[in-house]
Protein 1
Amino acid sequence: MNNENLFEIEEKFQPFLLNNDYTFIGPVDTLYLTEFYKYVNKIAPKIAISRLIHHSLSNKSAIKKAISILPQNIELRIYVVISNGKRDLIHTSIEDYCRRNNLNFLKK
């Protein structure tokens, strides 16, 4: 997937999400991903008393702002965060999520 149409693909994927799962777009490179989490968590608005990473990563405005400060040619991907009822952050690629859940979203 190229970076230019990721937001469009992410939007079209929303009806396929199960339970309380959600998506975010972030860098493929794990070295950038850790800093990306920190920055998104810092700029996203607080919800209630605390600021959970789940609230931050589901905030599309904060994600877009964080992406804008990444190096220009960095590869991005759509991540699917799998809700486990805890504060843990468990995510996978959209391709793997579709495969695991027998979703036909990516099949042409």
Protein 2
Amino acid sequence: MGLTSPCICHFHTFSVRISLAKVILGALVYLAAFLTLAPLFRAVKRTDVQTLAPMLGQIKILKPVTSLVFGYELHVLDVLQSRKTGAD
């Protein structure tokens, strides 16, 4: 019993790290897909981003993340707009 306890503990810690990595990777993939598909399905409009960005940008701890996310949203919306005007 004394010899197997450290092995089980080490394996459990390794297993938790892998599970945590899978959760983080899954969250990042989901976030990227959501941020890309939301404008494609017109769930997010430019006015939404222009309204939310200044409000959430005032929170110092969120400002780096929100500027990145809203910048990406605006980029996707710009690409969609340029394809829409190019198709006309």
